[in-house]
Amino acid sequence: MKDVMSQVDKFALCAAQVAKSFGDTQVLRNIDLLLAPGEVVALLGPSGCGKTTLLRIAAGLLSASSGQMHIAGQRVVDGSGFNAPPEARGIGMVFQDYAIWPHLSVLDNVAFPLRMRKLGRSERERRARRALDRVGLGHLAERFPGTLSGGQQQRVALARAIVAEPPLVLFDEPLSNLDRELREGLALEIGTLLRELGLSAVYVTHDQAEAFTIADRVAVMLEGEIAQIDTPEALFSASEQVEVAQFLNIGALIEGTLSASDGFTCAQSRLKLPSLAGKGKEGHARILIPRMAIRPDPQGALKAQVLRCQFQGDRYLLHLGLDGESTGLVCPADQPAPVNSQIPLAIDADRLRIFPN
């Protein structure tokens, strides 16, 4: 990280060893984060993991206890006590509650950051209309926020965030107040728009689908640390920690014993995976069985009891147990299966991951 700190001007955001404590409680633990120009990174994690605290430090709304942060090469945080105010950082922000003023027109709401920078009225209006055009709301410039839908208000907030063409845009769970259908549609629109505009952004969310739709890379935050940061595809195919796999709910974690001769044997059932012989360190281990590694198969040697059959529109999810145990096996299927029935399964051993203890 020391070599990177000498090249901070090459990054939209550069955080090094950023930590934050409230009294004796440490909320952030030495966070390192690099954001390339034009890149979108999502901070994904459960409540209390520190993702919002990190965003607020980047925004200048909180000071860091230690560490450094640069935005577009400008030093904005120094753990020795320096903390640049929000207005000096030149960033854009999109909040959870939109923060749109109801007494101002859409155009005036979007132009407000330029007004604070004391730009002339004609220039403010020109740039605000351009920002509204970019988010597809140019025809609503004269309307008032109370006449808009939730999705339209969210786009107004985005237009205001980008009107000054900031080097970085911060999103604080902007879609969490919307219903799921609208949230999914807007997540896709925001991701597409950020890429079309080439904006650099940090996007905080607790919604996995939202993060994977919008971000180029996703930082999974657990207990004040970035447990892993990678592309959505890599997080699913190569989780580096058991905790990351559990949080993402990729599949079932099965505890057992790994040996060079017999492969893997589950501690609580007859599940045996001889194909894993010699694939890892002998002894107690946990095997991650991704959902897509299991499939119903009339020739499958493994029998499982259907605990629940969940319809998902285009497929079914079968929640399965082995030997009467609720082991957390979940497998997609084209056809439903009766609850408490026994079905044969096949497991694709090439998709399994071993986590030694």
Shape: globular
User: How is the biggest beta sheet arranged?
Assistant: 6 strands, mixed
CATH topology of the largest domain: Rossmann fold
Share of β-strand residues:
25-35%
How many helices in DSSP terms? 9
Task: State the main characteristics.
357 residues, alpha+beta, six-stranded mixed β-sheet, 9 helices
What does this structure look like?
By secondary structure, the chain is of the alpha+beta class. It has two domains: 2-91 and 166-237, Rossmann fold; 251-356, no CATH class. Helix content is 25%, strand content 34%. The chain contains nine helices and 20 strands. The strands form four sheets. Strands 6-7-8-3-9-10 form a six-stranded mixed beta sheet, sandwiched between helices. The protein has a five-stranded antiparallel beta sheet with strand order 13-12-11-14-20. A five-stranded antiparallel beta sheet has the order 15-19-16-17-18, with no helix packed on it. Helix 4 crosses helix 5 (150-162). 38% of the residues are buried. The model has no long low-confidence stretch (mean pLDDT 88).
